[in-house]
């Protein structure tokens, strides 16, 4: 199949593209400049020059493809709408990437026992309502002849397989531990995040590509850990004493910016029972804490 992938140079999109190439598909990847285009070509991906803001590029590439994977920006309503509109009535597959911070709370490092499944009632923070509206619009395209599916991964870790192999959150914790001389987390560090290894995440996209029905929504998760335990694993990686310190919200905002600082102090606990049951997806690991302490992040020492 010819598959158009947005975010093909990114962490998720690059790893999913690599899996799709291995499965014999032809990948057309969005690249927003010539340098990114060349990096895609080196990996056997046909570059489509343009950005999420280019209506004609997105529309034409989606219509020309047999299927589309949107893995560039979970919060961009324009791109999602262009892709949905381009595929309307075609029966083609659209796998759209969301993210589980839609269930985030305002805990600032405190524990919460709230666990979410796909049919749980959400009480979203104001900054997450846009993402939820995009997800609903994409799922709703199932009524208009699009095999639209939303995948919602949680915190992803491990080495990716594409142009950008590095995960987002774990390196931030490594960096702050290195600059402070001690691993640090928001508040008490008792807040929990679900997580999934990047290759397991890509396998879930492959399983959804095969088995998901139009209009379905899946969390992708393989375990959970507190930010305190994540920080201790960072300390083990860096050969530090087994202790952590808390970080004020103001320091976290300075280091990571407001959305990420609030996010890393929140609880994001989801379960992927639906993906296991309906897609037949299974995670293989390695687990987050082992992968931090003695796996993918050794180069960061
Ligand atoms: N990583 C996670 O743990 C995680 C978990 C759940 C959900 N998500 C969500 O999934 C999405 C992708 O995440 P990621 O980790 O793969 O991020 P990433 O590594 O930063 O990749 C983003 C990709 O989108 C491309 N892109 C961004 N803005 C663009 C624009 N305006 N026009 C064209 N291309 C654009 C980037 O191109 P360049 O190479 O040119 O920058 C890159 O290919 C994000 O919305 C993120 O919030 C991420």
Bound molecules: NADP nicotinamide-adenine-dinucleotide phosphate
| Broad CATH class of the domain at 2-104 and 116-156 and 197-221 | Alpha Beta
Total of helices: 12
CATH topology of the domain at 2-104 and 116-156 and 197-221: Rossmann fold
Q: Tell me what the CATH architecture of the domain at 2-104 and 116-156 and 197-221 is.
A: 3-Layer(aba) Sandwich
Backbone shape = globular
Largest sheet: 7 strands, parallel
- Based on CA atoms alone, the radius of gyration comes out at 19 Å
Order of helices and strands: EHEHEHEHEHEEHEEHEEHEHHHH
Span from first to last CA?
41 Å
Helix content: 25-40%
Low-confidence stretches: none
Which structural category do the helix and sheet elements fall into? alpha/beta
The name of the CATH superfamily of the domain at 2-104 and 116-156 and 197-221 reads: NAD(P)-binding Rossmann-like Domain
Arithmetic mean of pLDDT: 97
Secondary structure: number of strands: 12
Strand content: 15-25%
Q: What's the arrangement of strands in the largest beta sheet?
A: 3-2-1-4-5-6-10
């Amino acid at each position: 199949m010819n598959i158009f992938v947005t975010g093909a140079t990114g962490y998720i999109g690059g790893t999913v593209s690599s899996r799709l190439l291995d499965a014999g598909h032809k990948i057309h990847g969005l690249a927003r400049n010539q340098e990114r285009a060349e990096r895609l070509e080196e990996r056997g991906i046909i570059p489509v020059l343009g950005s999420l803001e280019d209506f004609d590029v997105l529309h034409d590439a989606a219509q020309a493809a047999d299927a589309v994977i949107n893995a560039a920006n979970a919060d961009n309503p324009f791109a999602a709408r262009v892709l949905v509109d381009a595929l309307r009535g075609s029966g083609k597959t659209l796998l759209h990437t969301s993210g589980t911070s839609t269930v985030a709370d305002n805990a600032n490092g405190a524990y919460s026992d709230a666990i979410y499944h796909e049919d749980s009632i959400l009480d979203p923070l104001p900054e997450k309502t846009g993402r939820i509206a995009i997800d609903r619009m994409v799922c709703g395209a199932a009524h208009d002849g699009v095999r639209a599916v939303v995948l919602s991964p949680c915190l992803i870790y491990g080495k990716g397989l594409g142009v950008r192999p590095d995960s987002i959150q774990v390196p931030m914790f490594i960096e702050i531990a290195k600059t402070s001389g001690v691993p640090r987390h928001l508040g008490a560090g008792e807040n929990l995040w679900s997580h999934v290894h990047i290759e397991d995440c890509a396998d879930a996209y492959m399983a959804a590509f095969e088995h998901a029905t139009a209009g379905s929504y899946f969390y992708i998760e393989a375990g959970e850990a507190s930010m305190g335990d994540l920080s201790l694993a960072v300390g083990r990686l860096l050969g530090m004493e087994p202790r952590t310190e808390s970080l004020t919200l103001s320091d976290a905002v300075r280091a990571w910016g407001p959305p990420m600082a609030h996010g890393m102090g929140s609880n994001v606990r989801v379960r992927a029972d639906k993906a296991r049951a309906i897609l037949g997806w299974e995670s293989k690991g390695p687990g987050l804490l082992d992968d931090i302490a003695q796996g993918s992040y050794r180069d960061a020492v």
